[in-house]
C-alpha cells in the first residue's frame, strides 16, 4: 500500500482550510539584575514583585507588537528609580509625584538578535525629567504610567514603532 499520495493530499487539504497566517511576533526576554539593590521600586518584596512583573510584562508586550518574527530582544534591567517618592501616612504608603527631582529613571543593557546574529546592542540610561508636563498618552492611565511612557519612547526610538 502506497501512502505517499494520501499524505500529500492531507497536507494540501490542511493548507487549504487553515486560517490565514498571522505574522508571528518577536520575543522579549527580561532579566532584572539584583533588583533588591535598585534605587526605588517600592518599600518591600510585594512592591518589588509588582513593579518587576508590571514593567516586565509591558516590555514583553512592546516586543510582541514591535519586533518582527524571528527577532529576540534580551534586556537586562540594572536599575529602576520610579517617578515620585513614597510618603508614609497613617492609612498606608502613598507615592507622590511632584515633577521636581523625582523623575523616573531606568538603566538597562540590550541585545537584539535574529537567530545568532546580533542586530543591535548597547546600554541605555532612560530618564524623563519633565515627566509631569508634556504629552499625555494612554500609558499614563495605567500603573507605572510614567515609566511605561518612557520605555515606549525608548523602544520606538531604538527599534521602531510597536
What does this structure look like?
- This protein has 162 residues and is of the alpha+beta class.
- The protein has one domain (24-159).
- It is built from three helices and six strands; from the N terminus they run αβαβββββα.
- It has helices at 4-17, 45-66, 145-159, and strands spanning 27-32, 71-81, 85-89, 92-96, 105-114, 117-127.
- The strands form two sheets. It has a four-stranded mixed sheet, with helices on one face. A two-stranded antiparallel ribbon has the order 3-4.
- Helix 2 (45-66) links the parallel strand 1 and strand 2 (71-81).
- The longest helix is centred in the middle third of the chain and has 22 residues, at 45-66.
- The N and C termini lie far apart (52 Å).
- 21% of the residues are buried.
- The model is unreliable at 1-22 (pLDDT under 50).
